[in-house]
Every structure is written in structure tokens, then in C-alpha cells.
Design a protein that fits this description.
Blueprint: H1 2-20, H2 29-32, E1 48-49, E2 60-75, E3 78-97, E4 103-118, E5 124-127, H3 139-143, E6 148-154, E7 160-165, E8 186-187, E9 191-201, E10 207-222, E11 225-234, H4 241-247, E12 253-259, E13 264-277, E14 285-296, E15 326-327, E16 366-367
Antiparallel strand pairs: 1-8, 2-3, 2-14, 3-4, 4-5, 4-6, 6-7, 9-10, 10-11, 11-12, 12-13, 13-14, 15-16
Length: about 375
């Protein structure tokens, strides 16, 4: 009996010990918790590029400039086509560069070869290198070849600081001498905006101020050469065809190749293909097609032979702080317009915008004004 009780007591103690024992540990919560995902790291910042013009005193930079235009107009049932082609050499003679990098240079048109053809008339041509006699209508072109047209100072972003025109020159769609560059370094895909105003004469004779801008985008950088996409944008609503006809030459879109290390434009190509209906009566129309190309002489990709001058062709496919400029109408002008103020999308020597019959003359050209 005693043995039984003893055994029973031991059993009870054993059971009680089990009953009151602490439950097994649930484990380390930290150890059992699922691992935390790695903290997100900030995406690497894209590489940026500082775009600045760079020049040295004594440099003589030459660009070959080619401009083709074809204007087909229909007024009162009469259709006329005017074609112009101009190949010229634009020169910047760098006279001084100050400590801030502002460059002062002379702008010169070294030579020009121009052709103009109107419906029903023989082609007229003038080559400043070979022609001793100047054809009628090209006298203003001839007297502006080989002389200093302007002395200009620009900053490292291409903004004009000072300009002294030595010769009277036809107005240009913009007063910028070259494509404007951004204030800060930019990454591929980023863009900057350059607003400006144009003034145009409306059908009723009133003057309109047209808000415009260039959008310039850094498209790519290859081998130290930046490709910029330039697009002209009209911001103001334009419903008057007479005004539209004065803006067509200001709406050039294209590409610019810029050498980052040397700080200069290597080449640029711009195209325009615009239709305007009703600019001189309900049944009138205008089709303006233009191509502009510029290439730095000495660029390794330049070919030895000069481009042949053929008739204008339509494009295969087919953007400056507020400042003063002129939007020349695409409609006929005298050949004296051949030497124009250079611009990011215009030639140093632009071909004369072909003459049209007197009854097709348009309103005065649109003018860009300084704020």
C-alpha cells in the first residue's frame, strides 16, 4: 500500500509538473519573421551635359550653307511656281573672347551661288566667284558679298549681347545667330524653351503680336557630338490666313549637331512644308516647301566635292529669350533679300524668295520685336 501511494505520489507529481510546466517557447519572433525586402535604392541619376559655345581669338570659322525653296501660289485661278537655290559660305572671324567666354566676331558672306526660276521665265543665276557682271535683281546680293555685314558679341549660350550692323540687311525670322543653348546641364531627353514674339499684319491692316517659341531637345550624344532636335511652335491662335502666310518661313523644324568639346555647331538641317488657303481671297492658296542645310567646313564627315545645285526638292520627311526678329512671308520678295541676318534655322545668305505677279503680292512681312 505504501509502495502504491509512493508510486501514485510520484505519478501525481509527474502529471502536475507536466500540467504546470511552461508551454514550449513559440520561437524567436525576429527569427521566424519573413526577411525584410532590401531597401529600395535611388535610381542612378542620368548623365548630364554642359552645352556651351567656345571660341578662340583669331579663329576663322566657315560654314557651307545651302537653302532651297519652292513656292506654289494660286490666286484668281492663276498658278505660279517660284524656285530658288542658294549655296554660300558663311564666315565668322573671331576678333576677341573675354574672360567670361563672350565672343566678338565679324559676320561675313564669303561667296554665293544663286539660282532663281519663275514659271514662264528663264532661270537667272549669279555666282560671285565667276560672274563679272551681276544680273538684274542681284545687285544687293553682290554688294554684300566679301564684306563685313555685322560685328556681333554673343555669350556662351549663343545669346546676342551686342550687335553692330555695318550694312543694311533684310530682316530675318530671328535675330539669333545660332541655336540657343540651355542655362544648366541637361540629360538626354530633356528640353529647353526659347520664347519670342513675331509681329504680323492682319488682313484688315492691323498689327498682331504672335507668341512663338523654340523647343530644343537633347536627343542623343555620340562620340562627343550632341544631336539637338529643334521645333518651332506657334503659341498664339492664328486664324487669319494672311498672318499664316507670313509665318511659314519661321516654322522650320530639324536637327543640329553640336560638338561639345570644341563648343560649336558642326551641322544642321531644317525642313518646312506648309499649306495656306485663303491668304489672298477665298480661292487662293500657297504651298511652301523649303530645305536648309549648314555644315562646318573642316568637319571630318565633309566630302571633298561641293553639292550640286539642282532645282529645289520637297523634304524627304517631312525649336531664343524673347528678342527681336522678323518672320518674312514666304510669298515673293525681291532678290535683294538674298543676304539675310543669319539665324539658327536660316542661311547666312538666303536665296531670294521668288517674285510673284503683282496681283499676288502679300502684306508686309511679319516682324519680330524686342521686348
Amino acid at each position: 500500500m505504501i509502495k502504491y501511494l509512493h508510486r501514485a505520489g510520484l505519478a501525481w507529481l509527474f502529471v502536475t509538473a507536466i500540467a504546470y510546466a511552461e508551454p514550449p517557447a513559440a520561437g524567436n519572433p525576429k527569427a521566424d519573421a519573413p526577411p525584410k525586402p532590401p531597401e529600395k535604392q535611388d535610381a542612378p541619376k542620368p548623365k548630364t551635359y554642359q552645352l556651351r559655345y567656345q571660341f578662340k581669338p583669331g579663329e576663322m570659322l566657315r560654314w557651307e550653307v545651302e537653302h532651297r525653296a519652292q513656292i506654289r501660289t494660286t490666286v484668281a485661278g492663276t498658278t505660279q511656281t517660284a524656285e530658288t537655290t542658294s549655296v554660300s559660305v558663311k564666315v565668322w572671324k573671331i576678333n576677341a573672347v573675354d574672360p567670361q567666354g563672350n565672343a566678338t566676331f565679324e559676320h561675313i558672306v564669303e561667296c554665293v551661288d544663286m539660282r532663281q526660276k519663275l514659271t514662264g521665265r528663264q532661270e537667272v543665276r549669279y555666282n560671285s566667284r565667276t560672274d563679272k557682271e551681276v544680273p538684274g535683281g542681284f545687285q544687293d546680293v553682290a554688294k554684300n558679298v566679301g564684306v563685313t555685314l555685322s560685328e556681333i558679341t554673343i555669350d556662351r549660350q549663343g545669346k546676342i549681347i551686342k550687335r553692330d550692323d555695318k550694312r543694311e540687311q533684310p530682316a530675318s525670322p530671328t535675330t539669333h545667330m545660332t541655336v540657343p543653348l540651355p542655362d544648366n546641364p541637361v540629360a538626354i531627353g530633356e528640353h529647353w524653351l526659347v520664347p519670342y514674339d513675331l509681329t504680323a499684319t492682319a488682313k484688315d491692316g492691323s498689327t498682331r503680336v504672335i507668341k512663338m517659341r523654340q523647343q530644343v531637345t537633347l536627343e542623343e550624344v555620340t562620340g562627343g557630338v550632341a544631336t539637338l532636335d529643334v521645333e518651332a511652335q506657334v503659341l498664339s491662335p492664328v486664324r487669319d490666313p494672311t498672318v499664316e502666310a507670313q509665318l511659314v518661313q519661321s516654322e522650320l523644324n530639324g536637327k543640329v549637331r553640336f560638338d561639345i568639346a570644341s563648343g560649336r555647331v558642326l551641322s544642321q538641317k531644317n525642313n518646312s512644308d506648309k499649306h495656306v488657303v485663303g491668304y489672298q481671297g477665298a480661292t487662293s492658296s500657297m504651298h511652301y516647301v523649303a530645305q536648309f542645310a549648314e555644315k562646318l567646313l573642316g568637319d571630318p564627315e565633309r566630302t571633298a566635292a561641293k553639292p550640286k545645285i539642282a532645282g529645289p526638292q520637297p523634304p524627304t520627311s517631312a525649336k531664343p529669350a524673347t528678342t527681336t526678329a522678323v518672320a518674312k512671308p514666304a510669298t515673293p520678295a525681291a532678290p535683294s533679300a538674298a543676304v539675310a541676318k543669319p539665324a539658327p534655322s536660316t542661311a547666312a545668305v538666303k536665296p531670294a524668295t521668288p517674285s510673284a505677279p503683282a496681283k499676288q503680292a502679300t502684306k508686309p512681312s511679319a516682324r519680330r520685336r524686342t521686348k
